[in-house]
Design a protein that fits this description.
Elements lengths: L3 H11 L4 H11 L5 H16 L4 H13 L3 H4 L3 H42 L5 H10 L7 E8 L9 H14 L5 E5 L2 E7 L3 H15 L3 E4 L3 E2 H22 L5 E3 L5 H5 L3 H12 L10 H12 L4 H8 L3 H15 L6 H17 L7
Parallel strand pairs: 4-6
Antiparallel strand pairs: 1-3, 1-4, 1-5, 2-3
Helix pairs in contact: 2-6, 3-6, 8-9, 12-16, 13-14, 13-16, 14-15
Length: about 350
């Protein structure tokens, strides 16, 4: 029985086959390698890469083969020998790199196709689960998804994306984590019982893009759960944009009240129009007064803090609050009225009301 070590050695040796003969011929006349000889070395390099042979060992074998040339050839012209070795190894490296780049492009294409199918719930679940194993995922388990956006769209092979992936691998190793780009965003799929993975991903994405944002969905079971978590992460980012929410990391679990409020959009629209509609009668329109209510509620109903956020005096802020009370009949300082007003303001943010004002 042939040992695995012997088989590896045989594979290594096969990729220097013909190399010594090329060196002998080139050294004998001092000529450069022919096109056919260079192409044979490129082909050997491609086969070596496809066989998964280590680059360092391959170079060592090439140098050893040159050293083992008959003394009279090697000593005839060191310059000719070194030139031939340089050409041969360079061609071999070109083939090796070409095969690696091709493999990387194939892997990226397969990952992109898998991510598309996974996040949109396409493909047969059984087939999807088989493909998931290739990328380290076990779809019978629970997963959570994070979606990162940056000042510039993420692309395949993106330098920032590679840096984030390297950081995750260095910190967590191969823990069934999948990173990919989609629609200019960076996607991270991680086990649902390891929330620290997505937390680290969010920190790295924010730091790497100098101000990017990350939405994190909740953990859900199975392939359908990945789709659901992905949608939650995307919705968190969209919601933050519409609501003007602060913070680089937005967790769907912390924003559940907003989907509840907008589940009946018509009822919310009626509430906004009924409660805030009278503000349109104010000089300058409803927008300045709605901004005042937003700042007032966001600051915990502390007038001095709200005034600071709006770059107003406390007196000017108080006047605006009184004007709101006068127009709507609802007093922001009254707990019951405050709840109605705040709900209506949230609805106005979600619905983009009033749409006709800048």
């Amino acid at each position: 029985m042939v040992s695995s070590g012997a088989m590896d050695r045989e594979a290594m040796d096969s990729h220097v086959t013909g190399y010594a003969e090329i060196l002998r011929s080139a050294c004998a006349t001092g000529r450069r390698l022919t096109r056919a000889e260079l192409e044979s070395r490129r082909a050997q390099g491609e086969r070596a890469a496809e066989a998964g042979l280590a680059w360092r060992a391959l170079i060592r074998d090439h140098l050893a083969a040159a050293r083992d040339l008959p003394p009279h050839l090697a000593s005839g012209s060191t310059e000719h020998l070194l030139a031939a070795v340089e050409q041969a190894v360079d061609a071999f490296a070109e083939g090796y790199e070409r095969a690696q780049h091709h493999a990387i492009r194939q892997e990226e294409a397969a990952r992109r196709e898998f991510i598309d199918d996974l996040l949109h719930g396409r493909s047969d679940l059984g087939r999807l689960a088989e493909r998931a194993e290739r990328f380290g995922l076990r779809l019978a388990q629970a997963y959570a998804v994070a979606v990162a956006t940056g000042p510039e769209p993420y692309g395949d092979g993106d330098r920032v994306a590679r840096r984030i992936e390297d950081s995750l691998l260095a910190r967590f190793g191969n823990r069934r984590i999948l990173l990919a780009t989609k629609d200019g965003r960076l996607i991270c799929v991680a086990p649902g019982d390891e929330p620290e993975v997505l937390t680290h991903f969010a920190k790295q994405a924010y730091a790497a893009t100098d101000g990017g944002r990350v939405g994190i969905g909740r953990s859900h079971q199975g392939a359908g759960g990945v789709v659901r978590s992905y949608e939650e992460a995307r919705n968190a980012l969209d919601l933050a944009e519409r609501m003007g929410l602060d913070g680089p990391v937005l967790r769907a679990a912390d924003l559940l009240v907003y989907p509840v409020l907008t589940r009946d959009r018509q009822a919310m629209a009626d509430l906004v129009e009924s409660v805030l509609g009278p503000l349109a009668e104010a000089r300058g329109g409803a927008r300045p007064l709605i901004d005042t209510l937003m700042a007032y509620f966001d600051s915990g109903c502390v007038a001095t803090e709200a005034a600071r956020r709006l770059s107003l005096s406390v007196r000017a802020l108080t006047y605006r609050l009184e004007r709101i009370h006068s127009l709507t009949g609802a007093d922001p300082a009254d707990p019951l009225h405050r709840y109605t007003l705040q709900t209506a303001v949230i609805g106005a943010r979600l619905l983009g009301w009033p749409a006709n004002e800048s």
